[in-house]
């Protein structure tokens, strides 16, 4: 079936790049046939303003159809470039976070391609039935299009359709709970705000980014994920000493215990772990099972079985990836918030250490990216060689 082209509007992203990406890629699943209208306020307040604009550039480069409007926060930046006292105003309105994201000391240090993008943003776009604009229009004026300031800042307006060519207004700027946005999609007041206060993470009713499918008047919603601590840590040492919710064991198919990290975990955790393993009976390569942590500081042990290295053409990579993935999924399923991994398969099972480290890190990062719940992951390296390899792979 031919996919129809859709028109989406998103507003007030405010440096929440991860949330923006997720909404566009995974929630609305933007296609190259669609058009995306962004109603301004890409920057300030949130953690990654640069990332937001980079994603816009990336979409444009990849052939997606985007139309970007100016918001009041982009205007603060433009004004700050001109007058030094305006730079202070910019910084006090969340601009410090923007500078951080660019690793810039002043706004003049922001690379010119970003500044040119911001300076070139138009104030509004007219569609057949809608006017898209950051804040709105000042309808007290004979010609509301003469008041640039109101276009970016107005908060209350009574729309006069005679002055908009019968167009209803879709705008941002006024943080509104997404449930209320949904309720207002009948445009009873001839305008609707689609700013669901993404960056206001402490206000439960806000803290979401929405995309409006303009033709279908359907709202797509993504909770803010930019402040979630999906951390990756690296430590050198003995995994049995770690105070995390769950440690992973590099076990064998029979869950019979053995040497290496398996032996260490059973020794430190005591017989309760083996009793639980016996009840489970076994575990296929790449799968994972969970037991008590016994006497360990960790609450639980996830036993996974990595592949035995056999030249590399026997699905070793996929099986190792599965061992990490299935362990993570099992941890999340059990509501566990922190997990520690040994360097699975790199001991007795002979997996090349560099390749194993790369697979481990990539699999974990990919999992964290796609996961809504937080999970803190620690890689525990027992031997110096693995520790140095992980440092390099993690760029530390
Ligand atoms: N803490 C963290 N890592 C450790 C510890 C520890 N206490 N002890 C060893 N390591 P291996 P595999 C590291 O051989 O290759 C067992 O007998 C070690 O330096 O434990 O997946 C099982 O029963 C290495 O980097 O696991 C299986 O039969 C990593 O843990 C078989 O070995 C993995 O080495 C599994 O082999």
Salient structural properties:
elongated, six-stranded mixed β-sheet, binds ligand AR6, Leucine Aminopeptidase, subunit E, domain 1, 396 residues, alpha/beta, 15 strands, Purple Acid Phosphatase, chain A, domain 2, 12 helices, 17% strand
Q: What is the CATH T-level topology of the largest domain?
A: Purple Acid Phosphatase, chain A, domain 2
Secondary-structure class? alpha/beta
- The beta-strand count equals 15
The CATH H-level superfamily of the largest domain is Metallo-dependent phosphatases
- Measure the end-to-end span: 48 Å
Taking all Cα atoms into account, the compactness measure Rg is 26 Å
Uncertain regions spanning at least 5 consecutive residues: none
Largest sheet: spatial strand order: 10-15-14-11-13-12
Shape: elongated
Structurally, the number of domains stands at 2
Number of helices: 12
- Sheet with the most strands, sense and barrel status: 6 strands, mixed
Bound molecules: ligand AR6
Query: How much of the sequence is in beta strands?
Result: 15-25%
Q: Under the CATH scheme, which architecture of the largest domain would be assigned?
A: 4-Layer Sandwich
Helix content: 25-40%
Mean pLDDT, as a whole number?
A: 95
Question: What string, H for helix and E for strand, traces the elements in order?
Answer: EHEHEHHHEEHEHEEEEEHHEEHEHEH
Q: What's the CATH C level of the largest domain?
A: Alpha Beta
């Amino acid at each position: 079936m031919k996919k129809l082209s859709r028109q989406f509007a998103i507003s007030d992203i405010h440096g929440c790049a991860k949330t923006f990406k997720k909404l566009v890629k995974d929630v609305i699943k933007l296609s190259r046939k669609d058009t995306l209208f962004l109603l301004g306020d890409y920057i300030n307040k949130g953690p990654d303003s640069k990332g937001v604009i980079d994603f816009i550039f990336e979409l444009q480069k990849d052939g997606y159809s985007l139309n970007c409007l100016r918001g009041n926060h982009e205007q603060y930046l433009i004004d700050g470039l001109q007058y030094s006292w305006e730079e202070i105003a910019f910084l006090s309105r969340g601009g410090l976070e923007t500078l951080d994201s660019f690793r810039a000391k002043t706004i003049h240090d922001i690379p010119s391609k970003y500044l040119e993008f911001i300076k070139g943003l138009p104030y509004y776009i007219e569609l057949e039935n809608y006017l898209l604009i950051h804040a709105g229009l000042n309808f007290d004026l004979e010609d509301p299009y003469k008041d640039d300031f109101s276009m970016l800042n107005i908060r209350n307006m009574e729309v006069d359709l005679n002055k908009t060519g019968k167009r209803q207004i879709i705008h941002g700027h006024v943080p509104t709970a997404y449930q209320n946005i949904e309720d207002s999609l009948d445009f009873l007041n001839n305008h609707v705000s689609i700013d669901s206060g993404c960056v206001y993470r402490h206000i439960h009713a806000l803290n979401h980014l929405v995309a409006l499918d303009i033709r279908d008047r359907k709202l797509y919603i993504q909770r803010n994920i930019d402040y979630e601590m999906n951390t990756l840590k690296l430590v050198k040492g003995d995994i049995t000493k770690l105070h995390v919710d769950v440690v992973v064991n590099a076990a064998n198919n029979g869950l019979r215990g053995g040497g290496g990290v398996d032996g260490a975990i059973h020794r430190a955790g005591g017989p309760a772990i083996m009793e639980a393993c016996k009840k489970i009976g076994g575990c296929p390569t790449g799968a994972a099972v969970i037991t008590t942590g016994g006497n360990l500081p960790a609450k639980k042990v996830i036993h996974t079985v990595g592949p035995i290295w056999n030249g590399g053409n026997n699905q070793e990579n996929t099986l190792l990836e599965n061992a990490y993935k299935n362990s993570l999924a099992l941890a999340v399923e059990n509501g566990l918030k922190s997990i520690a991994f040994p360097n699975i398969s790199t001991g007795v099972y002979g997996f090349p250490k560099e390749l194993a480290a790369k697979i481990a890190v990539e699999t974990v990062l990919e999992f964290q990216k796609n996961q809504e719940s937080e999970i803190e992951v620690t890689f525990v390296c027992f031997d110096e060689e693995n520790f140095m390899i992980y440092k390099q792979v993690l760029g530390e």
